[in-house]
């Protein structure tokens, strides 16, 4: 396999973008990456998107987006793995470049969620329709069940959960592209409206519109596009049962652990060498489960990390410097690519007030459903 | 829900049919063709008991549109004596009274309706397991005044 | 002799008091409680309907009978609140109970006597030898228009009876039906609430048909009121069954065990069947039991039953009616009641 690098990134603001359509969002992010790389050609496009068919009634995004990018003719396909669609789009682009099939591929993610659809019902299609959704399960509901299981197994408290939101909002307050550029207090989190007990509104990532894009090419061609490429050292994906009831342990995300282990092995590093990470904090409990499964905290200890500052900027392993899904926003199909954008900037020293100084290795973990799919990428500054 | 999709699942939704693996004994609900534990295809159809225990639960305050009128409702993972796990609502009680370890009975209920004119979709919900007959029932009746207007 | 091989009942666990409803409409609760002799009534949840009540009652009947569902050759559901206008309730009930597919299924409607109507036909099929066992259910989630007298009584619940030839818990001694065309209570297709003829529902309807059917079955069997340990009359309110019982020469001791209406309300097709189930919960071997239903439109079915030695042995296999009436229950406000009964207009 050829070594593969990210050479450019583009991203929209995340939020309730009433004036922008699905295609507007994609074009803005993709054109941003193309402009940064100073190129106007592509060998292929992968569009990470969870559910444009349901959110805005639009399928067949591959050719649509290629056309609106002024690149009709280029191979272009939508990649779907629920909220991990973006991460999987990046992995697919990586494989295409690593294999030698293509030299310059755009991996993008886009979602337009604020267009009047029943968001709760649409997101729930990523869980098991026959056994979970049929009975009234929602995504917050399923993560609430995970939270309760984690509380029972490890003594995690509602305040522990609240600290994850507080920490990520502190980061997001420094990110001009974030949906919520403001800090929160634990009191605000713990007095917000109940969504699905024990999860409250401020434990949940918001409903967002947005897009993100990165360009990948062989490392030995990277200098054509940038002086500061970031190498993709590891990429891995793993799956688990869609239904929570089929999991061995509801408080542990097997797919996150497996995708992490495979990515670490491919990159030849361990969690202790990671300098900065973006993990899938769709709900506060998810960040705790993910940092445990990825080895950033021992099992059962992840609950303390946000409060102690271990996972905050300046801490042992800063997690979600972008603000995470909670503060930056979570346009589901775009999230995996937005994580890569954050790490591309961190590893090229372009993160401004959020910069983790001297960061060499970055890890992005993006998952679908309640962790039925998880994809992990490990990046290295060169 | 389109009626064919509903109709196909009737054996598990109406009668709690499940598969017991002939090789490793794992019980899968709803039935599966391949055992998720050992990949055996030697499965036997069984009917689950109409009782179980709450493993974990939540109270859903923000429901999908189809369940708007029922919120807040308790949603739980229930394990039957056969070891099958299912996600069901816990009905006929204050959602705040649901807790892990609670014993429940499974009762046939209307789960959802397809708008005003579509099909009615049935299945099971858990309800608190009430003692029945004899002393247990007498004890229950003596507590009547506590329950009333609770 | 053919009889009832198993029985069961189900009553939803929500209640609303007569007082709460009266207050809503500015009525004096005491006057209404005394006039109708109603304390409270059962209220179905969003997730309960004739089908779910029938499944619960039917499951209890099968449990008490100890009969394999595969031996049940007919399933009849009597109700005036079948959830579908077109599509049987009985097919769901049969599948849920594991009955069939070699089974005869039908939904019955005859206002409040659809339950005994189903029992009548189930019994006849068993007696004829055409099927080994036949399940008959009377169940309703009754509707009464807001601020109508019926709103204080219309409730939810039902009972199921499995008829069979072998080892009955109760033998059927005789039956009779008395039917005329009397438009005392009706609901036209597409209408949400039923309408009624006010006091016309009394003398020419309820009292005439219940009295005629009861008198005729006493004549037919040569039995007298004092020969019975228990009697059950249809219970549209608390008062009617007591009045008709008294005029026919029955005592409160005979009526009270099956007089479930003060705390259950009128479960329409499930009313007299649930009263009968409550009687079977306490009857001793060889006790004679009389039940007379009433359905507006109008007609009455009477059954004379005799308990066997099996009844006390089997009744512990399912919950008693009184345990459901007096057991765990939640009281709802009129607002919650209006929501549960879909009396509040909401957007799709």
Q: What is the secondary structure topology, with strand pairs?
A:
The complex is a heterotrimer of chains A (382), B (150) and C (348).
Chain A: E1 4-11, H1 22-37, E2 44-48, H2 52-55, H3 61-68, E3 76-79, H4 85-98, E4 105-112, H5 119-123, H6 139-154, H7 158-172, H8 186-190, E5 194-196, E6 199-200, E7 209-218, E8 230-239, H9 254-267, E9 276-278, H10 284-293, H11 305-308, H12 324-328, H13 332-347, E10 361-368, E11 373-381
Parallel strand pairs in A: 2-3, 2-4, 9-10
Antiparallel strand pairs in A: 1-7, 1-8, 4-7, 5-6, 8-11, 10-11
Helix pairs in contact in A: 4-13, 7-10
Chain B: H1 3-8, H2 10-15, E1 17-21, E2 27-28, E3 43-47, E4 51-60, E5 73-79, E6 85-90, E7 103-113, E8 120-128, H3 134-142, H4 144-147
Chain C: E1 3-10, E2 14-17, H1 18-24, H2 29-36, E3 40-43, H3 50-65, E4 72-78, H4 90-97, E5 104-108, H5 114-127, E6 133-141, E7 156-164, E8 170-182, E9 185-186, E10 195-196, H6 202-221, E11 230-233, H7 239-248, H8 252-255, H9 261-264, H10 271-280, E12 288-292, E13 297-307, H11 310-314, H12 321-326, E14 330-331, H13 334-340
Parallel strand pairs in C: 2-14, 4-5, 4-6, 11-12
Antiparallel strand pairs in C: 1-7, 1-8, 2-3, 6-7, 8-13, 9-10, 12-13
Compose a concise summary of this entry.
The complex is a heterotrimer of chains A (382), B (150) and C (348). Chain A has 13 helices and 11 strands. Chain A is of the alpha/beta class and 382 residues long.
Mind explaining what this structure looks like?
- Chain A is of the alpha/beta class and 382 residues long.
- Chain A folds into two domains: 4-118 and 207-224, Peroxisomal Thiolase, Chain A, domain 1; 136-204 and 233-381, Peroxisomal Thiolase, Chain A, domain 1, CATH 3.40.47.10.
- Chain A has helices at 22-37, 52-55, 61-68, 85-98, 119-123, 139-154, 158-172, 186-190, 254-267, 284-293, 305-308, 324-328, 332-347, and strands at residues 4-11, 44-48, 76-79, 105-112, 194-196, 199-200, 209-218, 230-239, 276-278, 361-368, 373-381.
- In chain A, the strands form two sheets. A nine-stranded mixed sheet of chain A has the order 3-2-4-7-1-8-11-10-9, sandwiched between helices. A two-stranded antiparallel sheet of chain A has the order 5-6.
- In chain A, strand 5 and strand 6 (199-200) form a beta hairpin.
- In chain A, helix 4 (85-98) packs across helix 13 (332-347) and helix 7 packs across helix 10 (284-293).
- Chain B is an alpha+beta fold.
- Chain B folds into two domains: 15-47, no CATH class; 49-129, Beta Barrel (OB fold (Dihydrolipoamide Acetyltransferase, E2P)), CATH 2.40.50.
- In chain B, the strands form two sheets. Chain B has a five-stranded antiparallel sheet with strand order 6-5-4-7-8. In chain B, strands 2-1-3 form a three-stranded antiparallel sheet.
- Chain B starts with a helix and ends with a helix.
- The model of chain C has no long low-confidence stretch (mean pLDDT 97).
- Chain C has 348 residues and is an alpha/beta fold.
- Chain C has 13 helices and 14 strands.
- Chain C has a nine-stranded mixed sheet with strand order 5-4-6-7-1-8-13-12-11, sandwiched between helices. A three-stranded mixed sheet of chain C has the order 3-2-14. A two-stranded antiparallel sheet of chain C has the order 9-10.
- Chain C has helices at 18-24, 29-36, 50-65, 90-97, 114-127, 202-221, 239-248, 252-255, 261-264, 271-280, 310-314, 321-326, 334-340, and strands at residues 3-10, 14-17, 40-43, 72-78, 104-108, 133-141, 156-164, 170-182, 185-186, 195-196, 230-233, 288-292, 297-307, 330-331.
- Chain C has two domains: 3-169 and 315-340, Peroxisomal Thiolase, Chain A, domain 1 (3-Layer(aba) Sandwich); 170-311, Peroxisomal Thiolase, Chain A, domain 1.
């Amino acid at each position: 396999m050829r070594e593969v690098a990210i050479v450019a990134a583009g991203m929209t603001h995340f939020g309730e973008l009433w004036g922008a359509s699905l295609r507007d969002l994609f074009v803005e992010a993709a054109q941003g990456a193309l402009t940064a790389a100073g190129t106007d050609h592509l060998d292929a496009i992968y569009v990470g998107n969870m559910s444009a068919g349901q959110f805005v009634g639009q399928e067949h995004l591959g050719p649509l987006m290629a056309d609106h990018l002024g690149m009709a003719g280029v191979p272009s396909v939508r990649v779907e793995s629920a909220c991990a669609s973006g991460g999987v789009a990046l992995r697919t682009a990586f494989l295409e470049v690593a294999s030698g099939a293509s030299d310059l591929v755009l991996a993008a993610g886009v979602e337009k969620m604020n267009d009047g659809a029943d968001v709760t019902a649409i997101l729930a299609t990523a869980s098991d329709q026959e056994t979970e959704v049929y009975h009234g399960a929602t995504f917050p509901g399923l993560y609430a069940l995970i939270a309760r299981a984690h509380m029972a197994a490890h003594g995690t408290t509602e305040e522990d959960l609240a600290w994850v939101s507080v920490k990520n909002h502190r980061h997001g307050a420094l990110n001009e592209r974030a949906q919520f550029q403001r800090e929160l207090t634990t009191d605000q989190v713990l007095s917000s409206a109940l969504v699905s007990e024990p999860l409250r509104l401020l434990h949940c990532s918001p409903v967002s519109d947005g897009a993100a894009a990165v360009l990948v090419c062989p490392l030995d061609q990277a200098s054509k596009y940038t002086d500061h490429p970031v190498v993709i050292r590891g990429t891995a994906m793993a799956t688990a049962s869609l239904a929570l009831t089929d999991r061995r342990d509801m408080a542990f995300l097997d797919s996150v652990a497996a995708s992490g282990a495979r990515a670490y092995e491919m990159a030849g590093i361990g969690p202790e060498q990671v300098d900065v990470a973006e993990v899938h904090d769709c709900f506060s409990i998810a960040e705790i489960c993910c940092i445990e499964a990825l080895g950033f905290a021992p099992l059962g200890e992840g609950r303390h990390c946000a409060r102690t500052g271990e996972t905050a900027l300046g801490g042992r392993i800063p997690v979600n410097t972008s603000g995470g899904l909670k503060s930056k926003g979570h346009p589901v199909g775009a999230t995996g690519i937005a994580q890569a954008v954050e790490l591309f900037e961190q590893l090229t020293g372009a993160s401004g007030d959020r910069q983790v100084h001297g960061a060499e290795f970055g890890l992005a973990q993006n998952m679908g459903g309640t962790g039925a799919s998880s994809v992990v990428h490990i990046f290295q500054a060169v | 829900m389109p009626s064919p999709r509903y109709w196909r699942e009737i054996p598990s939704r109406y009668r709690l049919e499940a598969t017991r693996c002939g090789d490793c004994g794992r019980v899968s609900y709803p039935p599966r063709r391949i055992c998720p534990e050992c990949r055996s295809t030697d499965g036997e159809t069984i009917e689950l008991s109409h009782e179980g225990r709450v493993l974990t639960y939540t109270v859903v305050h923000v429901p999908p549109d189809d369940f708007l009128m029922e919120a807040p409702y308790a949603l739980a993972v229930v394990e039957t004596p056969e070891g099958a796990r299912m996600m069901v609502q816990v009905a006929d009680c204050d959602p705040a009274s649901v807790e892990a370890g609670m014993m429940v009975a499974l009762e046939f209920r209307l789960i959802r309706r397809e708008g005003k004119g579509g099909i009615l979709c049935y299945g099971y919900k858990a309800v608190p397991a009430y003692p029945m007959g004899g002393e247990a029932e007498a004890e229950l009746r003596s507590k009547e005044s506590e329950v009333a207007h609770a | 002799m053919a009889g009832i091989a198993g029985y069961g009942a189900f009553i939803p666990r929500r209640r609303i008091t007569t007082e709460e409803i009266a207050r809503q409409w500015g009525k004096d609760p005491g006057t209404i409680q005394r006039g109708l002799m109603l304390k409270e009534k059962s209220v179905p949840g969003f997730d309960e309907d004739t089908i779910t009540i029938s499944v619960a009652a039917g499951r209890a009947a099968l449990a008490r009978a100890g009969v394999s569902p595969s031996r049940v050759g007919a399933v009849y559901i009597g109700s005036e609140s079948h959830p579908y206008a077109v599509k049987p309730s009985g097919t769901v009930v049969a599948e849920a109970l594991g009955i069939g597919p070699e089974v005869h299924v039908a939904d019955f409607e005859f206002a409040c006597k659809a339950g005994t109507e189903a029992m009548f036909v189930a019994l006849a099929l068993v007696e004829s030898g055409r099927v080994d066992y036949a399940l008959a259910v009377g169940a309703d989630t009754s509707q009464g228009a807001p601020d109508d007298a019926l709103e204080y009584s219309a409730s939810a619940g039902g009972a199921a009876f499995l008829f069979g030839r072998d080892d009955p818990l109760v033998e059927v001694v005789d039956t009779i039906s008395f039917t005329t065309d009397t438009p005392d209570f009706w609901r036209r297709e597409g209408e949400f609430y039923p309408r009624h003829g006010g006091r016309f529902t009394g003398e020419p309807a309820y009292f005439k048909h219940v009295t005629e059917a009861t008198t005729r079955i006493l004549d037919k069997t040569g039995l007298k009121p004092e020969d019975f340990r228990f009697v059950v009359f249809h219970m549209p309110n608390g008062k009617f069954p007591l009045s008709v019982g008294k005029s026919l020469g029955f005592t409160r001791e005979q009526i009270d065990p099956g007089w479930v209406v003060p705390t259950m309300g009128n479960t329409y097709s499930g009313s007299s069947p649930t009263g009968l189930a409550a009687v079977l919960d306490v009857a001793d071997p060889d006790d004679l039991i009389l039940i007379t239903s009433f359905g507006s439109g109008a007609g009455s079915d009477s059954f004379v039953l005799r308990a066997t030695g099996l009844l006390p042995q089997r009744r512990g296999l399912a919950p008693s009616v009184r345990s459901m009436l007096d057991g765990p229950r939640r009281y709802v406000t009129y607002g919650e009641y209006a929501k549960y009964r879909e009396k509040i207009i909401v957007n799709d």
